[in-house]
Amino acid sequence: MNSTRTAPERPRGLTVKNGAAGDKVFSGLTLAAGVTILVVLAFVAIFLTIESLPALSPSLFSDQDSIDSADSFWDYVWPLMAGTVMASAIAILLATPVAIGIGLYISHYAPRRIATPVGYVIDLLAAIPSVVYGAWGMTFLAPLLVPIYQWLNTYLGWIPLFAEAEGASVTSTGRTLLTASIVLAVMVLPIATSLCREIFLQTPKLHQEAAQALGATRWEMIKMTVFPFARAGIVSAVMLALGRALGETMAVTMVLSPGVFSLSLITSGRNGTIPAEIALNFPEAFGMRQAELIAAGLMLFIITLLVNMTARWIVSRHKEFSGAN
Predict the structure, then answer these.
(1) DSSP assignment, residue 162?
(2) What are 291-316's pLDDT values in tens digits?
(3) CA–CA dist 63, 271 (Å, integer)
(4) What span, in angstroms and rounded, lies between the C-alpha atoms of 46 and 6?
(5) Which of 25, 205, 257, 279 could lock 269 by a disulfide, CB 3.0 to 4.6 Å apart?
(6) Residue 155 to residue 117: CA distance in whole angstroms
(7) Per-residue pLDDT at 324
């Protein structure tokens, strides 16, 4: 007696047809999502450009002779642009090594019973509102850093970053650009750490085991396999964190005392950022003043766009890397 059983024959073309229909629907949804993002981005750019024209070209508008805050728009906006870039750059310089170190500890050094809660705590930091970070930086961190700033001025005052600004002395409140940068570094740390941790965990196990089988130590294995594989991911994580730092408003507004631009990082009232300037002045602004602030926002939009384009270019240079070369 033949005990071989045959499966019931499936109607031909049913799976393929359903699969093709599902592919078309999903492809259409993803295309619509991508087009929506581009359309929204285009509308934002168009809005900022149109509303900024009175400030960028006041001579074209008969009812407006010049901007209110400076002799020209560029005299007004370049100190804000410089302060924004300085604060974000310092924050990234402080946060990147710490983020990479924490990511490596969670992924390759810490036992699971420790790595899991540490990862949860890092992720929870991203859920804290920026106003809480601002309050912490203003009331706790800033006074704590005042003696450190005085020490930096005493022993490293020959460096312009730690010298007294012209017409001002070392801060007595701690509300300086460096304090704002430290707060920004803490804020962007969860984003960079989470992305670095995930990309480190994706490193092929066979490559790591092969390096250790050849006699490499754990650190040598990380240098030979993990870092090359995660290079593009680290760049993406850093640039995403930089985008967050460039656009942060409330924390910087609460910590920083805006004022004229200076290279000094330890003097209050000598630096400002574009987001803080807009947050402080936009509610009461109208006419040319409103155009100035929107034009400043356009400059921030361009800076962020350039940063992301540079990041994509850097990542694309290493997109061929598969972990095997």
Answers:
(1) G
(2) 888 999 999 999 988 888 887 787 77
(3) 32
(4) 65
(5) 257
(6) 41
(7) 41
The domain ranges of the chain are 72-317
Residue whose tokens read 């400076």:
70
Residue with tokens 């045959």: 6
Cα–Cα–Cα angle for 256, 183, 166, nearest 5°? Answer: 35
Distance CA 257, CA 325 (A): 50
H or E segment to which residue 89 belongs = helix 73-104
pTM of the model as a whole:
0.83
How far does CA 44 lie from the centroid of its chain? 20
Identify whether the C-beta of residue 167 lies closer than 8 Å to the C-beta of residue 196.
Answer: no
Q: Which amino acid is at 224?
A: M
Collect all residues with Cβ–Cβ distance below 8 Å to 24 and sequence separation of at least 6.
none
- Rounded Cα–Cα distance for residues 22 and 24 (Å): 5
Render pLDDT for 44-65 as a digit per residue (tens, 0 to 9): 999 999 988 888 877 666 555 5
CA-nearest of 226, 233, 188, 224 to 107 is 226
> How far apart are alpha carbons 246 and 307 in whole angstroms?
10
User: Could you identify the residue written with the tokens 């969670």?
Assistant: 106
Q: 10 Å Cβ neighbour count for 49? A: 14
Nearest-angstrom CA–CA distance, 73 and 57: 9
Q: Are 191 and 123 in contact (CB under 8 A)?
A: no
Look at the alpha carbons of 112, 114, 120, 123 in this order and tell me if their dihedral is positive or negative: negative
Question: What gap in Å lies between CA 225 and CA 321, rounded to an integer?
Answer: 11
Q: Is the domain covering 72-317 a CATH 1.10.3720.10 domain? A: yes
Q: Which of 154, 115, 162 is nearest to 263 (CA)?
A: 162
